[in-house]
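Dissemination and training. As part of the outreach component of the grant, students in the summer workshop were shown how a complex can be specified as a set of sequence lines and then modelled as a single object. The example used during the hands-on session is reproduced here so that future cohorts can follow it. Participants entered these lines:
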Amino acid sequence: MYRPKTSDIWPPRYGLGMWAWLFQRISGLVLALYLIGHIWVISFSIAGQGGIRFDSVLETLQKPYVLALELLLFWAVLYHGLNGLRVILIDFGLGIREQHILFWTAMAVALALLSWGIIEAWPYITGTPLI
Amino acid sequence: MQFKFHIQRYDPSSDWAPRFERYLVELDPLATVLDGLHKIQEQQDGSLCFRRSCRSAICGSCAMYINGTHRLACKTIIKSLRTKNIKVGPLPRLTIIKDLAVDMGPFFEKVERIMPYLVANSSPPKGERPQSIEERRAINEMIDCIMCGACYSACPIVGLDKDYLGPAALTKAYRFVGDSRDEGAGERLSLVNNQHGVWRCHTIFNCQKVCPKSINPTWSIQQLKKRLTRRPSWVIFGRKG
Ligand code: SF4
Ligand code: FES
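and obtained this result:
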């Protein structure tokens, strides 16, 4: 008998719930890796760490492209947090039959907060305010 | 009208992997995919293997993977696919026995595990065990399940944990737990109260997406979780997964 090798978790075959689940895993990984990186960066503030000064580390991190990446991080936080709330509500038995609405509401809130983040970060990235 | 069927074939005695074969079939657009399969089997290739019995979406034996999603072949009107190319494969993730027939053994074995029958310990009243319209309405949705296995095949958790009971068995469990006449709820809840039971569900909703009977197994699983959390904590945590 033939056992299919793939575990068939390719989301386009399925619906929104599958995408929401997959991105929850991905954003979770991103956040976990970021935390490790963050601790590593902060560790330079301890004097004598490899002879690199904390000031110069921070200077590198002020570069516009790093700041732009931080917006991505912000999106990961928003997605993970707000979709996480949706999952918690579902686990409380609320909105199981309305999970699409819950998802898009969470995403609307996330997008609103992201726009706010972009407006705030814009001057630091480009040097001129966005609005 | 002529339709092009692309059917996944696999014969364990001669093939080492599945392959697709093409068949041109003359069909009424209002015929079903199952009609097409029958026509192919009768007129072009008698070795084509698939399961069906009722041809009216009630026996659950013809669930297949048709044009990108899980469907009942007998319930899928060809016209509704909006294409002349019809791609038919067996239910994904399940072991193929031959062509479109998959091994449903593990699926039914898991359904059996949750005691899919009425448990009534008290002696029966005279006549039958009555149920009010409201009591029956509470389990209407779960009773509609035809055990086709579409939800089971679509669930990624089933793919990742071979012991996971799966959406259909858990829906069946709630069909009895929620039944006013049933007295086996305690035992049944214990059976689903482990890491291969209700707690494995990640609320991905693929089951609800593919169910040909519009059942929402996630909802039933949630009802089971709700009943479990209402039990004293030593009962919840006392059982090893
Ligand atoms: S819940 Fe729906 S998809 Fe799953 S076995 Fe029952 S009828 Fe088929
Ligand atoms: S043949 Fe019975 S459900 Fe399709």
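Chain A has a mean pLDDT of 85. Students were then asked to discuss how this feature might be tested experimentally.
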